[in-house]
């Protein structure tokens, strides 16, 4: 993941207030992508 993409996803997660800066800085790129997907990506099941 590019640094710009990572910073954008980190900013979104911090706004959601699910994690603090210390927790996020310890995460790997796949972890950040997973949590961003979990909290921000729409699923077809969200609309059922």
Parts with pLDDT < 50 across at least 5 consecutive residues: none
Mean pLDDT: 85
In DSSP terms, counting alpha (H) and pi (I) runs of 4 or more, how many helices?
Answer: 3
Order of helices and strands: HHH
How far apart lie the N and C ends?
32 Å
Structural class: mainly alpha
Helix proportion: 55-70%
Protein name: BH0509 family protein
Organism: Metabacillus rhizolycopersici
InterPro entries: BH0509-like
Walkthrough of the structure:
The chain is globular. It has three helices and no strands. The protein is 65% helix and 0% strand. It is mostly helical. The longest helix is centred in the first third of the chain and has 14 residues.
């Amino acid at each position: 993941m590019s640094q710009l993409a990572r910073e954008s996803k980190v900013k979104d997660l911090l706004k959601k207030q699910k994690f603090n800066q210390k927790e996020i800085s310890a995460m790997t790129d796949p972890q950040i992508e997973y949590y961003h997907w979990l909290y921000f990506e729409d699923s077809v099941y969200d609309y059922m």
